Amino acid sequence: MSWPWKTIIEPFRIKSVEAIPLLNRPEREAALREARYNLFKLPASVVTIDMLTDSGTGAMSAAQWEAIMRGDESYAGSRSFYELDAVVKRISGMPEVLPVHQGRAAERILARTMLRDGGLVVSNTHFDTTRANVEQAGAEAMDLPVDQSGDHPFKGDMDLPRLKEILSTREVKLVLMTLTNNAVGGQPVSMANLQAVSALCREAGVPMFMDAARFAENAWFVREREQGWKDHSCEQIARAAFDLCDGLTMSAKKDAIVNIGGLLACRDPELATMFRNQLILGEGFPTYGGLAGRDMAAMAVGLLEALDENYLRYRARSVEHFANALQGAGVPVVTPPGGHAVYLDAGALLSHLKPAELPGVALGNALYLEGGVRGVEIGSLMFDGAPRELLRLAMPRRVYTEAHIHYVVEVAAKVVAQAAEIRPMRIVEAPDFLRHFSAALEPVD
Ligand code: F0G
User: Fold this and answer.
1) Number of CB atoms found within 10 A of residue 45's CB
2) Residue 97: is its pLDDT beyond 80?
3) Among residues 41, 72, 89, 128, which one is catalytic?
4) Is 37 a catalytic residue?
5) Residue ranges of the alpha helices (H) in 309-401?
6) Tell me: the pLDDT tens digits for 326-340?
7) Which of 47, 123, 292, 407 is most buried, with most CB under 10 Å away?
8) CA distances from 398 to 123, 132, 144, 315, 417 (A)
9) CA-to-CA dists, residue 178 to 14, 214, 395, angstroms
10) How far apart are CA 41 and CA 24, in angstroms?
């Protein structure tokens, strides 16, 4: 329905609640020291507002819990699989649907099947696990995001002139469009860009896949910001985007609002057979793919709830309200805000720190120490040579209220007041890849 009111309300009421941990400062200091200054290593029991990720952290609806109870746990041909299969076919138009336990399982199967002989994958920006899976397969992952300066409404787009050049000079195995573009700030991709990428891929004979983790949020932005789409439903917009692709990978832990799950889908039955052979090796039988029947049942419901316009309006408004309030408190953020998180510009706020001194990590630690707020660094710890030093505060779906958000803004304002005293950080120990998950760090005097 259209919404004539200025106040956008949560389109749900709360039926079941969970207490959140409230700690004092010495307790937080001890916990952070124990975690070797890496927020990934904090037990959730010491985190007050957990904005580490929007992945798998959403609140399921009563309808999803109902579906959970009806889940069919048959090994082969579970009814819950067919329910999911029907919803995915309806939303995406893809005839071949494979459930997997989460997004990176789909990426791994895709990489092991399509990148067996190495080669080049081009994306508007690979998510970190996607890049790691491409590289582990012996292939090269290239990111071609558009220029990120200014307030362009579709900063998630692919740089078309660069793509054209690469397609004409190199052999590209796969083009992968990430919707929304998480690594550059949860920024949406325009339909015009998807259409242009699809045309270039077709001309060059290169398959185009979509990393569809946040496909519904992307559809909302297209409807709101791109000319010609405001009279379409978000489901129609999502379908128009999928229609341009040969296949998709999806972490269902985001827009499908489940705590675990993922999807791999495509049009080509021969490719699907190869995917299924890989799926059996690592995930399970093709009609459950590493999930319980109940997980697939909840996903089928969540995929449709995520496309509800009242939900998406509330979702986009919550993120925008959070970003505006942070800016009001003096925190520089990436604008316009994306769909699932606000990205704090740690490099700008802590301009006394060089990238190698990990300003995103330093800011994340400061927010935790001040008020038990946990975010995630997207900067030089995550990717050596990252273009920007950001701290992402992700918003779990349907979990936190407006007062929780105001609390986080108050905590951030206190950190801003002490910004000049925030110390550099240094890596003490780290593995060779995906080092941000497990690195040990320490503040430098
Ligand atoms: N693609 C994108 C765009 C993602 O954001 C993620 C996960 C994945 C793929 C991998 O999916 O976690 O189900 O295996 N992103 C999470 C995040 C972890 O915090 O942004 P997964």
Assistant:
1) 8
2) yes
3) 128
4) no
5) 309-328, 346-349, 359-371
6) 999 999 999 999 999
7) 123
8) 30, 30, 32, 8, 31
9) 32, 8, 19
10) 19
